[in-house]
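Input record (one chain):
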Amino acid sequence: HVQLVESGGGWVQARDSLRLSCGASGRTDSIHGMAWFRQAPRKAREFVAAMDWRGGGTWHVDSVKGRFTISGDNAKNTVNLQMDSLKPEDTARYYCAATSRSVNWWIQSNYNYWGQGTQVTVSS
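The corresponding structure, as predicted from the sequence alone:
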């Protein structure tokens, strides 16, 4: 089993930056990929970014490309999400997820481990 704990959320103004971090513990040797998803009020949870833990590739949803960057350190079992130029529409609860399979990284049903989430609120 893998446990995930997120940190770094908060309340910021538009155009500010935040850095989210997620630490993994437990059976971290089983992790093939890690990702960030988010869920805004009254909306479905959506993919934000993912990282292939073994190959190093990264993917970002179009709405955050050029503003958000996922990075990770598999020696430290951490994955980060640097969020720059934040917009009010980025307001959501952000969840860290991990998968023990090398599959389509943007599909949340492929992830078998989830953190509790951290709230990000961006005011205009």
